[in-house]
Design a protein that fits this description.
- It comes from Clarias magur.
- This is Endonuclease exonuclease phosphatase family.
- The chain has four helices and no strands.
- The protein is mainly alpha-helical.
- The chain has a domain of about 70 residues.
- Helix 2 runs antiparallel to helix 3.
- It starts with a helix and ends in a 14-residue tail after the last helix.
């Protein structure tokens, strides 16, 4: 099992776009410290929560600024594409392909 971990280490994927590599490192450290030093765990947990909140707010402020800039330049194609991506609704593109039957 150690060989498998060495050759193919587990990778952590960002579930949200605003999570930085530093936050993921802090989360990994928090996992290691949890059973060893509970006071350090609480301190890390509080730091992670504050950091995530700041990064999330900065991300959404940047998205809002980008949308505002696109709207002011009348770039509606990129504006609506960004809004569709943010809403999570994906338009099916292969509805026009039909079976040979």
């Amino acid at each position: 099992m150690d060989c498998a971990k060495e050759m193919c280490p587990p990778t952590r994927h960002r579930t949200w776009p605003w999570i930085s590599d530093e936050c993921l490192e802090m989360v990994n450290e928090r996992k290691r410290v949890k059973l060893l030093n509970f006071d350090r765990y609480r301190h890390l947990n509080q730091a992670i929560r504050c950091r995530m909140k700041e990064e999330r707010e900065a991300y959404w402020n940047q998205v809002a600024a980008d949308l505002k800039q696109e709207a002011s330049k009348y770039e509606y194609h990129t504006l609506y594409r960004t809004l569709r991506q943010l809403s999570g609704k994906v338009k099916s593109t292969n509805d026009n392909i039909r079976n040979a039957d």
